[in-house]
Structure formats: C-alpha cells, structure tokens
Amino acid sequence: MTNDRKNITQPADWWVAFEAAAESEGVSLAEWIGACCVANIPKDVAAKLTERGTRGRPPSGKPKSH
Fold first, then answer.
1. Cβ neighbours of residue 46 under 8 Å, at least 6 residues apart?
2. Is the separation of the CB atoms in 1 and 53 below 8 Å?
3. Sequential DSSP letters for 15-43
4. What are the angstrom distances between the C-alpha of 32 and each of 4, 11, 20, 38, 65?
5. Cα–Cα distance measured from residue 33 to residue 4, given in angstroms and rounded to the nearest whole number
6. Which residues contact 8 (CB under 8 A, 6 or more apart)?
7. pTM > 0.85
8. 21 — phi, psi (to 5°)?
9. Using CB atoms within 10 A of its CB, is residue 59 exposed (0-12), middle (13-18) or buried (19+)?
10. Which residue among 2, 26, 40, 41 is the one 20 to 30 A from 48 at the CA level?
11. Are 48 and 41 a contacting pair, CB within 8 Å?
C-alpha cells in the first residue's frame, strides 16, 4: 500500500485546534484528520476502505549504525 501526500490549507487557528485535539487523543495529526474524514462518509463506503497503515517504514530488524 502506498500513501499519498496532500497539501491542505486551513486557517492557522484551525490547525492549532486540530493539533490540540489530536494530541489529546494521543494520535498523530494525520491519523486524527483521517478518522474525522472517515466519520463523515457513508458507513458502507467507510467499511470498504483499506486499513490505515502505520507511520513511516516498518522496522527492518537491523540496528542503525551511527
């Protein structure tokens, strides 16, 4: 599965409120926005969506060398 990056423009005070809400729920802003969007589409459409992937790449199992 691949993810698409989108540029979303909202007023600055909206972003502050969005970020605070996401933080209070213990999720990333992207995850919070996604959940809000899914909550506002028809349930039959939402039921057919793929599972949300995790953040970033999965661990490779190899320790990073610095």
1. 38, 39
2. yes
3. HHHHHHHHHHHTS-HHHHHHHHHHHTS-H
4. 16, 17, 10, 10, 33
5. 14
6. 33
7. no
8. -65, -45
9. exposed
10. 26
11. no
16 and 29 in contact (C-beta within 8 Å)? no
Q: Which two tokens stand for residue 2?
A: 């691949």
Q: Which amino acid is it at 5?
A: R
Per-residue pLDDT tens for 24-65?
999 999 999 999 999 999 999 999 999 887 766 666 776 666
Q: Mention every residue, 6+ apart, whose C-beta is less than 8 A from residue 24.
A: none
